[in-house]
Structure formats: C-alpha cells, structure tokens
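User: Sequence in, structure out. Go.
Assistant: Echoing your sequence, followed by the structure tokens.
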Amino acid sequence: MTEIIQILFFFLIIVPSSILHEYAHAWAADQLGDPTARHMGRLTLNPLAHIDVWGTIILPLFLLFSTGGRFLFAYAKPVPYNPYNLSNRRWGPALVAVAGPAANLLLAVVFSLIIIRLIPITLAITLFGQVLSLIVYANVLLAIFNLVPIPPLDGSKILFAFLPSHSTQLQENLERYGTLILIGFLFFGFGLIMPIVRFVFGLLIG
C-alpha cells in the first residue's frame, strides 16, 4: 500500500474512532446518572451529532497537507455533561473521562484479535490486513494521547480525581492554561508518548 493510501486510510479511520470516543463519554455519563448528552442528541453513533468543523475536518486536513502526513490528529465535538448529576461526585468525572480511551482500546483489541485469529498470514500482509492494522494503531494512538494529564484531555479529569481536595488552585491553573500547555505538548512533547503507542500496538498485533 502506497504512503498516500496509508495516509488517507488513517484519516478515514481516526475520524470515526474519535466519534466512537465521544459516544463512549456520553454513554458513561448517562449510565452514571447524567442525561445531558442524551437530551442533546449526543448519545448516538450518528457522525453528524459529533462532527466538529475545526477538529474533525479542518485541523486534520491542514495537518495532512502541512506535514505531508507525518502527523495526523482529529477530534470530535466534546460531549457535554453535568458532573453534579453524576451518582458519584468524586470519581464520576474520572469514569466518564476514562470511557473514551477505554472505547478506543477496546476497538483496538477487537481488530487485533481479528488480525491474529481470523486472517491467514497470506491475507494479513495485503491491503486488507494493513487497513486493519491501521485501525488498531489509530485507536491506540487516540487512547494514549487522551490519557495525557493536560486539560482538556481526559487524562486531566483522571488526575484531578486523585488529587487532594485542597489542590483546587492547581486544578484551576491547569484548566486556565491547559490549552496553551497542550499546544506546546503537541509541538514539542508529542514524541514522548510514541514509544508507549508503539509498545501497546506491538503487544496487540504481536
């Protein structure tokens, strides 16, 4: 498979994977007692409900052409939820947050099992096998990236759940400057997570 086909497939894979990620957030919040996402029509796999013009279309296309496909990233419209409606005020936000990466990892595991268990070796090296590998890789990348503890990523909600109650000032500062920190991370620190991505990917596809 040529490089340009790999790039296009990755783009077509990472957008639906981002939508699944947001659906998982909506499902988790609903299960924990907050119907906000359901009432706003976000508890659905319909892509139209989750597409963010900037994050799902413009940003990935810009990265596709500006980096020559070396770096691709996309995100769907964040799912709204009211933490005060959650049955568990302390751990509820963390559970809602972890649902997104968990959904991506689950999808990666499912497709890795298809590759390992169901596809003959001769077929695994063809276009079909490589596309399935890209699905695994894209979802591992999304899961690991979103677990980075920088607001507004999911990892920050998980981090906040473990911080002591008197650390509210730290949380407020992180949330206030989170976007700037995240931009800096994308440009200068993204490579730090790639060994983890490759390690998990290697574990899944053997």
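User: And one key feature?
Assistant: The chain has one domain: 3-205.
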